[in-house]
UniProtKB/TrEMBL annotation:
The keyword Lipid biosynthesis does not apply. This is Guanylate kinase. Pfam families: Guanylate_kin. It catalyses: GMP + ATP = GDP + ADP. It is an enzyme of class 2 (transferase). The lineage of its organism: Bacteria, Bacillati, Bacillota, Clostridia, Eubacteriales. Keywords: ATP-binding, Cytoplasm, Kinase, Nucleotide-binding, Transferase. It is found in: Cytoplasm.
Length: 193
């Protein structure tokens, strides 16, 4: 019996460790494909074009919006982020699993287009821990960090819109939970052709 393509959407507040968890998940799951988002924000130290993001100017991004090239897109803290439509659809057609790491706003849009997707919300152990992680990054101004913390509180109130919630207290444990969800979803009777 051949599996059909599986769309996994991972969301959570800024600083919760979504990127770290996803990187570990990819290192441990060879058949998983990553959807690389397009953004207008500047690259952080160590980020490279086409690996973490596709970095575009605001004008370039808006032209892509006009051409309906995004599955979803949103503005967050003054920057635009979008999921390229073509890549997601081509991975699913090849019966592969694709992971999207996107914000809540984008997840809601994707859920309308792909209601059979698996939606996972990553939560911090506490808001205090989340604040420490954000401040520890040292990549944003205090004002941006305060906006991100306020946004986190709002997002956590709406995590009921997701299929699963995984606490990122210890990275290894959280990754194992994510892998277990993927296995369970692949075994779900309704996911078989």
């Amino acid at each position: 019996m051949e599996d059909k393509g599986l769309l996994i959407v991972v969301s959570g507040p800024a600083g919760v460790g979504k990127g770290t968890l996803c990187k570990r998940l990819f290192a441990e799951c060879g058949d998983l494909e990553y959807s690389i988002s397009v953004t207008t924000r500047a690259p952080r130290p160590g980020e490279t074009e086409g690996k973490e993001y596709y970095f575009r100017s605001r004008d370039q991004f808006l032209k892509m919006v006009e051409n309906n090239e995004f599955l979803e897109w949103a503005e967050f803290c003054g920057n635009l982020y979008g999921t390229p439509r073509f890549h997601v659809e081509s991975v699913l057609k090849r019966n592969k699993t694709i992971l999207l790491e996107i914000d809540m706003q984008g997840a809601k849009i994707v859920k309308k287009a792909f209601p059979d997707g698996v939606f996972i919300f990553i939560v911090p152990p506490s808001l205090e821990e989340l604040a420490e992680r954000l401040y520890g990054r040292g990549t944003e101004t205090p004002e941006v960090m305060q906006r991100r913390l306020a946004q986190a509180v709002l997002e956590m109130k709406n995590m009921k819109d997701y299929d699963y919630a995984v606490e990122n207290d210890e990275i290894g444990t959280a990754v194992e939970k994510l892998k277990s969800i993927m296995i369970a979803e692949k075994c779900r009777v309704s996911s078989k052709p």
